[in-house]
Amino acid sequence: MKRGSLLSRRAVLRGVAAGGLLPLAGCSLDSRAPGVMSMLDKAESLTGAAQRALLAPRIALAPEYPPGAISSYFKPNGSIDPDDPDYVSARQTGFADWKLAVAGLVERPMSLSLADLRALPSRSQITRHDCVEGWSCIGQWRGAQLSALLDAAGLKPQARFIAFFCADTLEQTPDNTGRYYESIDLVDAFHPQTILAYEMNYAPLKVEHGAPLRLRVERQLGYKMAKYVMRIEAIDSFAALGHGRGGFWEDRGYEWYAGI
Amino acid sequence: MASLSSTAAPHVGATPSVVLRHTALVRVCHWVNALCFLILLMSGLQIFNARPALSWGQATDFDHPFLSFSAKQDDSGDVTAGETTLFGRSFDTTGLFGASRGSDGEMEERGFPSWATLPAEQDLAMGRRWHFFFAWLLVINGLVYAVNLTAGRHLRDLLPSRADLRAIPRTVRDHALLRFPKGEEALRYNVLQKLAYLSVVVAFPILILAGLTMSPAMDSAFPWLAPLFHGRQSARTVHFVLAAYLVAFVVVHLVMVLVSGVINNMRSMITGRYRIEGDAR
Q1: A219 domain residue, yes or no
Q2: Residues A107-116: contacts with CB within 8 Å, 24+ apart?
Q3: Which of A242, B33, B45, B159 is the least crowded, having the fewest Cβ atoms under 10 Å away?
Q4: Number of domains observed in the structure of chain B
């Protein structure tokens, strides 16, 4: 292989050796060794690039289903009842005084109530929610199109990602890195099916599913679809957030691009 | 491109002769495939363990999976037993499916046991990384093999002829008696070998397609993909069942390699050289 190719020959050999010996040697080899990790990361970049190329020629929509396909049971996952004091008090008033903050690299920072969000161009879609664990549920969602919100706020030219900061803490840590957050790039942010959902199955979004507002990124796995969204920021890099990998689960080893 | 039947006819007589049985390309593809399959299998079982149940359709049937592994706990929450439920019938599979001992010796809830998964401990994120890396390698290797198969004459070695199909009963009997072809006849694949290898060549692309169907991005790029398998959960089931079929193939394959001349067989897949016995009459 030539220099500069995606995988160096040495990395492949090292990986093959590591991969081949690991199961046979009774797992004495560390499957999380930095060399192994960086080799495995190559495939993530390749998968992301390949899927982006396949999705790029047209604005490919995630499949949508008829109302009859809606699952009778939609599994709530992750946090189902955040105990953050601000969230708890907002919830007690039915989110009447709750506001979504839109900040970061935008021309016009905003603070939007649920009524403001409902006034934005919306989309209703019945889609399949795919969890990284392997299960799927079909549900209806209605919400403000993120593209409309970002157009209203006006992205600055440096903006490359949209970050979502949530009310729930999924892991207790001293440095507060256990708080849920997510990030997506502008391709997904401006996709027509990317919405900030306030309605699920034709009723106001329930707390277990992320009330008052949940992100839907239909062409990716469930963990990208942050629940309890409190603040949105346009950013140029997510290196400074959490452990720097772009999301709560990403910080715990999952792929930032969750198309597969 | 040389292949089994197209190899220059060896001199068969009283003295044994050695022929080039497998081309270098087939040999390399075979071993890369073997490595990929082992890692994909073990990391796949790790991924399966995140939700050790299978159902049919687009969405998960949480109430009635047709296969599920689960654990039983006592009053203090300790895992006591593992259970497998298949089409509504439950079996005690403690130690194997549903519950087994982890590296600390404690009984824990897990679908497949730690010796069968990569990594050994439960770690879905790492399992996915291993799986997708070696999936790429498997696909690239498979494409090289497929081009060779269709461009060269190797496909002819795998497709059974009408005479082959008529010979199925006799070949089954010969196999049951562990009577294997000798001499030049051993160079040709018999009908059972052809069907077995052909089934693997067919199973792999379907298995890969079913795997890709579990990807929400792929289902968006190719809307026909999920309906092809009757939904994402069905695709997950097909992926699992075909993987199980390939495991069964590998078991039979290894047994046959052992009983039909292990050294000669191994050498022919490593160096390519296969020794033909003198006339067996």
Answers
A1: yes
A2: A107/A153, A107/A154, A107/A155, A107/A156, A108/A152, A108/A153, A108/A154, A109/A153, A110/A152, A110/A153, A112/A149, A114/A198, A114/A212, A114/A213
A3: B159
A4: 2
